[in-house]
CbbQ/NirQ/NorQ C-terminal domain-containing protein
Amino acid sequence: MVISYNPGYQSVLKDLKQSTRQRFISLEFDYPEAQKEAEIVSHEGDIDMETALRLVSLAEKIRNIREHGLTEGASTRLLIYAAQMIRRGIPVHEACRSAICLPLTDDAKLQETLNDLIEDIF
């Protein structure tokens, strides 16, 4: 049997009981290293490697500000969504804003910060 569980992601009411957690082994996952993540984004988003590397660079910067108001960092999934939008002809800044910035926060100040990061990288 395999279960998937993201500790700290669910509310306290949905947390696994300690006795249940002890019945399973745990594997800890983190984001892939930048080059590998860019390969994933490039392949899944069908975009060039240079753009994929820039998206990953953006994600790394966003992940570094998680402690400053964001509850989640930019996932590889969001990078792939942005890549797919770019591939379909959506301008890069608009794609990053729609696929990465807006899903992460409703806070205007944080959105401004994320938009500044997008401008810096692209």
Q: What stands out?
A: Residues 31-121 form one domain. The chain has one domain: 31-121. The chain has a mean pLDDT of 91. Residues 70 and 105 are 7 Å apart (CA to CA).
